[in-house]
Amino acid sequence: MRAYERLIKYVTYPTGSDPAATETPSNPEEWNLARDLASEMGELGMSDVLVDDHCYVFGTIPGTIDGYAGPTLALISHIDVSSAAPYTDIKPQIIHYEGGDLVQDATTGARVPLADYPFLANYVGCDIMTSDGTTLLGADDKAGVAEIMTLAERLAADPSIKHGPIRVCFTPDEEIGLSSEFLDIDTLAADVAYTVDGDAFGEVSYETFNAMTAIVTINGFNIHPGSAKNMMKNACRIACEFDGMVPDSETPEHTEGYEGFYHLCEMAGDVEHMRLEYILRDHDLDIVRSRGAWMRRIADFLNAKYGAGTVEVELTEEYKNMREVLERHPRLAEIPTEILRDMGVEADKSPIRGGTDGATLSFRGLPCPNLGTGGHNFHGRKEFVCIQSMDKTVELLTRLVQAIAKEPKTL
Fold this sequence. Notes:
The structure is a single chain. The chain starts with a helix and ends in a 7-residue tail after the last helix. The strands form four sheets. Strands 1-2-8-3-9-15-10 form a seven-stranded mixed sheet, covered by helices on one side. By secondary structure, the chain is α+β, with helices and mostly antiparallel strands. The relative contact order is 0.19. The chain has helices spanning 3-10, 29-43, 139-157, 185-188, 235-244, 285-306, 323-326, 331-342, 357-363, 387-404; strands at 47-51, 57-61, 73-78, 93-96, 102-105, 110-112, 127-130, 166-171, 192-198, 204-205, 210-219, 261-269, 273-282, 311-319, 370-372, 375-376, 384-386.
């Protein structure tokens, strides 16, 4: 079975993770996919298959090298999808792309415009999987799940491919930042790992943002607008004033590459109380912390203007740039880079403008770069994945497990 055939099946599970949930997994549908994956893993000959109490799926692809003394490798992907776009009743379709706009539905006019997404030109003559434009596709990260499972099938069918034991782990709730929360490192029992959770084929990522959240609470005072002069303190307007002091040039819509940002994700409330939720990001830890400090300065200014306690800012550091750890393990990026070059592709080592499971896991003692899966435009209705890129990812993983087996255990 090819990876895309598995993806067609996996995207039918409505596993959008819920940021408001208080339990892991956040969506009960994740259990259904986890259990079905575990059954499939057993059918593919994996051992030690387990779905734990928090919906993490584990299994082992048995090694084929007698007396193996090299590193134990883990391959990790997540089973949830973003809930930022509709994720139920997904209708995957395969389109042989011959150029121009990628038309998802001729009747509704849903399409991926070439003018807005010029990288589409790289896929002329390829087969592309996308939705009908009413939902996301769910390739983030079910494409990674499908590729790892297809690797397992290939290795089971061909024992002449020499590799050490490979630990497989599928995690819940990555899209809401909780996928590493309950991942038991001892259960995973690996020396090194890769997340298969990137975008285009050829990505080898070892840098992420440093991440911080900022919760801004505005405490106003309401009174009848007819007698409000010098009395009302409108939290809605103060919230707008607060956001107006955030540098417009340092927002996601105006930044790229190594440029970080402030991102206002959510704003809710009324005249008496407003709550603003921001994420702060930068590849430089000092800079992201300086953004948090600037938000406190805004609060100080507004409190001096409107009264103490009007504006409160709560800052929480989430994860750090995994480069801090991975630069001590350079071979983990060099190996897939060398394999890609042998496949005729120059690795894309651009920094991730986000985070992965690998960011947290690297700081927990499991160095973990990220590899591309062959997809684009994740989290939205214009998401798509190239079927040939998925095949190439399986080939990359096949060569990777063999190369890792030749490295010392202290890789």
